[in-house]
Write a structure and sequence with these properties.
This protein has 30 helices and 28 strands. By secondary structure, the chain is an alpha+beta fold. It folds into 4 domains: 294 residues, 2-Layer Sandwich (BirA Bifunctional Protein, domain 2), CATH 3.30.930.10; 82 residues, Herpes Virus-1; 81 residues, Signal recognition particle alu RNA binding heterodimer, srp9/1 (2-Layer Sandwich); 191 residues, Rossmann fold (3-Layer(aba) Sandwich), CATH 3.40.50. The strands form 8 sheets. The chain has a 9-stranded mixed sheet with strand order 3-10-11-21-16-15-14-12-13, with helices on both faces.
């Protein structure tokens, strides 16, 4: 599906430059092989980014694998040709490419170029409502057009090469898989897997055994997938190597496909873009999942259930609910075997971007692999009411006679005949009666079976068990794309700090003589408001002042070691910042990394110094990133508190103030001097508030400036 432009994208575009600067500067991710110039479509995750990604995958496992009681496999990244030929990837896993007729080295992915052109034309002032509707429909169908249909659309709208304005060549299919030889002489063709799903289908039989033969059940896999994109772009959005998390939910065939937990998600009201809404170029409709299933907009309960669970996961991971919608695949973009398909689209700076696909794939995959390998990829279930069926089959005497006749080939011939359905066996019998014998081909060998060996009978059987090829509902998650959405949705700047930075920058420009320094822009203080569950570190540990470490090394070291040990025992990631920066600056640096909590160790914590409060000994200040609120908590309680705040536990930071009371404000000792006073003011956000108040005073120019300042400082 195209990346769809949207009005809401401006909200994220406005802060995209600051976010990109933070992401690169703090090494969340950046271009792979950068010191060699880089290669399009490949990215390296740095220390914080790799941890956020792993935490997101861990959250996905909690939300789906654990809560839905799924099985999990870890299959290979390289697959042999036969597997991907059977799945259809060798023949059909293609995108169309068009080239500049004047320069064959200039090429484009045809559907994406068409989408871009439609966006440009819809943005033109002279574009009428009727034309906009027409362009929207063309854009929605861009990746569903056949080669000939695509070429006809390019000709209709006179689409040229964007930069040179040259004509474009006709679309040509380009297979997206990376081929790789297997073995020292490369005599077996293989490919890097284009998706993780096939490894689940290949191991269905063995997973079913582990599940005691019971259906429904689900199997998950998380891992790398590889696609040789024609035009990788937009950072992590379209890569050549990326991470997928996929579920194959195996269930009984049927139109309803009930799910026992559907009632839990039925009341969820979501934004839906059904086929009808798209074809009429209308905005998404809001309705409950229950209504969407009842009205037949969503094909069945199981599909609806995973749509609801997907929405809940995305919100839990840090995506804004109002910027998530679900788009139904158009009829001409769905595979012939699919019953229904939906994409979870998330609005970000690019517009609406597909991040999750949720499809009812019927029994296609298991059927194909079963037929190709002559393996039974079926399941069985007890019938509520036994049924009587008539079965047309070879008699036991006939099977024995065929065994004697064909000897070493008997097993292959009898297996072939017994697997034929009624129509197939009757056709062989009729052929033998008409011609005295029937010829059948088994495993590339031809066998002639005499008519007297083919003795069949119709027999009634009572069946207590039904055998079927399970249908599959598949939620497929693009982990990297979801991360992009999370970063954009969680990034913000504190208004007071941003104003302070802007004021400082302006003052710096006026006072600096060095032209280069004068032109250099200060980084805007940014905050990644990541959910604690996926943050790279759950807590940052900071000494209030460096002389705490210098003058009381033993006491500080004991407190720090105890805290670190207990955090590690609970599996909580932490960071220690004992750099020479002020406490306010260190808070800001941790905010950039998305660290949700900060623990500040001061003289009171250690019970040292002339003006310490004995009642606060053994406690530390716990700071919340987003509210900047602080509470005083015993050091021994902090690991347990952080563990609860960083999980699905209902405890929230506001509860701590009720339990422990707010952090007490105490005077700064004279020994701390001016530096200590500045640290104190920064730690309590007073510097930023004062700057913001002064800036507001300058703009408002009130009659009573003192009263105005007091009112501004009292604001939260």
């Amino acid at each position: 599906m195209p990346i769809t432009a949207s009005a809401g994208a401006a909200k994220f575009s406005a802060k995209k430059a600051d976010l990109d600067d933070l992401i690169k500067r703090r090494f969340f991710f950046r271009q792979a092989f950068e010191i060699y110039g880089g290669v399009g479509g490949f990215f390296t995750y740095g220390p914080p980014g790799a941890t956020v990604k792993q935490n997101l995958i861990t959250l996905w496992r909690k939300h789906f694998v654990i809560e839905e009681n799924l099985l999990e496999v870890d299959d290979t990244c390289i697959m042999p040709h036969d597997v991907l030929a059977t799945s259809g990837h060798v023949e059909r896993f293609n995108d169309f490419i068009v080239k500049d007729s004047g320069d064959p080295n200039i090429f484009f992915r045809a559907d994406k170029l068409l989408e871009d052109v439609m966006d440009q034309r819809m943005a033109e002032k002279e574009c009428t409502p009727a034309l906009k509707e027409e362009y929207e429909i063309v854009k929605n169908q861009a990746d569903a057009y056949s080669k000939d249909e695509l070429w006809a659309v390019f000709q209709k709208y006179a689409i040229k090469s964007p930069d040179t304005k040259n004509d474009l060549t006709e679309p040509v299919a380009f297979n997206l898989m990376f081929p790789t030889p297997i073995g020292p002489i490369g005599d077996q063709q293989g490919y890097l897997r284009p998706e993780t799903a096939q490894g689940i289908f290949l191991n269905f039989k063995f997973c079913l055994e582990q599940n005691a033969g019971a259906v429904p059940f689900g199997v998950a896999q998380v891992g790398k997938a590889f696609r040789n994109e024609i035009a990788p772009r937009a950072g992590l959005i379209r890569q050549r190597e990326f991470t997928q998390a996929e579920i194959e939910w195996f269930c009984k065939p049927g139109k309803e496909k009930p799910h026992p937990k559907f009632v839990n998600v039925a009341p969820l009201a979501l934004q839906f873009r059904s086929q009808a809404v798209q074809m009429e170029a209308r905005e998404a409709e809001t309705m409950t999942i229950g209504d969407a299933v009842a009205q037949g907009i969503i094909a069945n309960e199981t599909l609806g259930y995973f749509i609801g669970r997907t929405f809940q996961f995305l919100v839990r991971a840090g995506c804004s609910a109002e910027h998530i919608r679900f788009r139904q695949h158009l009829a001409n973009e769905m595979a012939h075997y699919a019953a229904d398909c939906w994409d979870a689209e998330i609005e970000m700076s690019l517009g609406w971007v597909e991040c999750v696909g949720i499809a009812d794939r019927s029994a296609y995959d298991l059927t194909c692999h079963g037929e190709a390998t002559k393996t039974s990829l079926t399941a069985s279930a007890d019938l509520e009411t036994p049924i009587t069926v008539e079965k047309f089959q070879l008699t036991k005497k006939s099977l024995a006679a065929i065994g004697k006749e064909f000897k070493k080939d008997a097993k292959a011939v009898t297996s072939y005949l017994t697997e034929l359905d009624t129509a197939g066996l009757k056709a062989v019998e009729a052929d033998a009666k008409a011609n005295g014998s029937a010829s059948v081909s088994v495993g590339g060998q031809s066998f002639s079976i005499a008519a007297d060996l083919l003795v069949c009978e119709t027999k009634s059987e009572t069946q207590h068990v039904e055998t079927f090829v399970p249908n599959v509902v598949e939620p497929s998650f693009g982990i990297d794309r979801i991360l992009v959405a999370i970063y954009e949705h969680s990034f913000y700047t504190r208004e007071a700090e941003a104003e302070e930075a802007a004021a400082g920058e302006e003052a710096g420009k006026k006072g600096k003589k060095d032209a280069k320094k004068d032109a250099k822009k200060e980084a805007v203080p940014g905050v990644l408001g990541l959910p604690a569950e996926i943050a790279p570190y759950k807590v940052v540990i900071l000494p209030l002042q460096l002389n705490i470490i210098k003058d009381h090394a033993a006491a500080y070291g004991t407190a720090l070691d105890s805290l670190r040990t207990k955090l590690s025992e609970q599996g909580l990631q932490y960071k220690v910042d004992d750099s020479g920066a002020s406490i306010g600056k260190r808070y800001a640096l941790s905010d950039e990394l998305g660290i949700p909590f900060g623990v500040t160790i001061d003289f009171d914590t250690l019970g040292v110094g002339a003006e310490t409060d004995a009642a606060l000994a053994g406690t530390a200040t716990l700071r919340d990133r987003d509210s900047t609120d602080q509470v005083r908590v015993p050091l021994t309680d902090i690991p347990d508190v952080i563990g609860k705040l960083s999980s699905a536990h209902p405890l929230c930071f506001a509860d701590l103030a009720a339990a422990y009371g707010p952090a007490s404000a105490k005077p700064v000792s004279e020994a701390a001097g001016a530096e200590g006073m500045i640290d104190y003011l920064n730690a309590h956000g007073i510097t930023a508030k004062l700057n913001a108040a002064v800036n507001a005073l300058g703009k408002a120019k009130p009659a009573d400036p003192i009263a105005f300042l007091v009112a501004e400082l009292q604001k939260k």
